[in-house]
Design a protein that fits this description.
Length: about 180
């Protein structure tokens, strides 16, 4: 009887939110850290990708920022360190990408897919999720990575497509990306 009551009593006496949240079986970062990194990720996205219209514009902004530097291991990628973690911006020919590794400690995630989807929905233009698909991509070492791809479009006819690729497996080797399509 006592063994059955223990989980119920624990739930009643532990303040709401004190128990760790999980995604895909991995523990999410504490709320303050999640919010800090989510805010930074979205600030980088708004500053360098969102509503930008060309690769050249993004590249000029990155070079002038004084914060982002060309990444040593990836051509065309600009990187900064924030709170000990690497954030990258890639000005591609068709879109601009911001990415970060979701796994920051063993079995812990920086923020959730839902966190980022909510943040995208709050962007000017009233972006809404229009499609979510599951896919398998090839990871950096040739391993299969299961991802969820979320496509967002603005509520009106004005605005560009946003694509979120969030790894469901191998979060410690595959980056979460948020793309803004120039057209």
């Amino acid at each position: 009887m006592i063994k059955r009551l223990l989980p119920v009593l624990l739930f009643l006496f532990v303040p709401f939110g004190a128990l760790a949240e999980t995604q895909q079986g991995l523990e999410l970062a504490p709320q303050a850290m999640r919010q800090k990194h989510l805010d930074h990720f979205m600030d980088v996205y708004r500053q360098f990708c969102y509503e930008r219209h060309s690769r050249e514009t993004v590249k000029s902004l990155l070079l002038a920022s004084g914060v982002f530097r060309p990444a040593e291991d990836f051509e065309g990628v600009f990187e900064e360190m924030f709170d000990g973690l690497s954030y990258a911006v890639t000005p591609d020919t068709e879109f601009c990408t911001v990415d970060v590794m979701l796994s920051y400690e063993e079995k812990r995630l920086l923020f959730s897919q839902e966190d980022i989807e909510t943040a995208v929905g709050a962007l000017p233009g009233n972006y809404r999720l229009v499609e979510r698909t599951s896919e398998t991509h090839e990871g950096p070492d040739g391993e299969q990575v299961h991802v969820e791809v979320s496509e967002f479009l603005p509520a009106g006819s004005d605005g560009n497509r946003i694509l979120l690729v969030s790894p469901l497996s191998n979060q410690d080797v595959y980056y979460m990306t948020l793309d803004y399509y120039y057209e």
